[in-house]
Amino acid sequence: MQYPPHSRTLSGPRRRSLLASAAGTALLAGCSHGSGESEESTGGSPSLTARARARAARESAGLLQRYDAVLAAHPAAAERLRPLRAEVVRHTEAFGGAVAKGSPASASPSASASASAPASSSAAVPVDEKEAVAQLAAAERALAERRTAALLDVPGELARLLASVAAAGAAHAFLLTEGAR
User: Fold this and answer.
1) Cβ of 116: how many Cβ atoms within 10 Å?
2) By C-alpha distance, which of 86, 58, 68, 67 is closest to 137?
3) C-beta atoms surrounding 121 within 10 Å
4) Is 173 within 8 Å of 141 (Cβ atoms)?
5) Per-residue model confidence as pLDDT tens digits over 34-84
6) Quick check: 69 and 122 in contact, CB under 8 A?
7) What local confidence, expressed as pLDDT, does residue 104 receive?
8) CA torsion angle for 128, 134, 139, 144 (degrees, to 10)?
9) How many CB atoms within 10 Å of residue 173?
């Protein structure tokens, strides 16, 4: 039995569909053009990105000082902490922060305690190595959480950098916690 032929055979998209798609594409392209011009203009204020980047650099530098203080107080932990500290140096530099060339990782423990770690940081390091590393893990975790929360307030590329560094910080906290067990 044969079926009657359709009154209209659909062989592809209709003209109206194509026109609507083309208009939608042009509209989206027009909207996205202004948002991709620069990272600075997307936050509503050019200084928003600069302030967030400077804050992230300061926080990374502060974390670096904590690593240096723990390394100075517990040189036996150096093998375990130096790779993580090196990552924190890279994070500080990625946010535009400066790191002194005479890094404590290559200096002697006594020189690093006096040269780069402030007296308050070295005094705050627990005598017990496990406790010192646990506090370092807590600092990494807290900073990762603050950076994750800040993602909604910063534009594009800086948000991606913050997310990446927050993930690295969470991994550092995990490694510091798991290594203590």
Assistant:
1) 22
2) 67
3) 19
4) yes
5) 333 344 444 445 588 899 999 999 999 999 999 999 999 999 999 999 999
6) yes
7) 54
8) 160
9) 21
String of b and e for 59-91 (b: at least 16 CB within 10 Å)? bbbebbbbbbbbbbbbeebeeebbebbebbbeb
The tokens 């927050």 sit on which residue? 166
Cα 104 to Cα 113: distance, rounded to the nearest angstrom = 8
Tokens of 119: 């007296």
Lookup result for tokens 């070295």: 122
CB proximity list for 143: less than 8 A, separation 6 or greater:
59, 63, 166, 169
The alpha-helical segments, DSSP class H, found in the chain are 15-35, 39-42, 46-73, 78-94, 109-115, 119-123, 129-150, 156-179
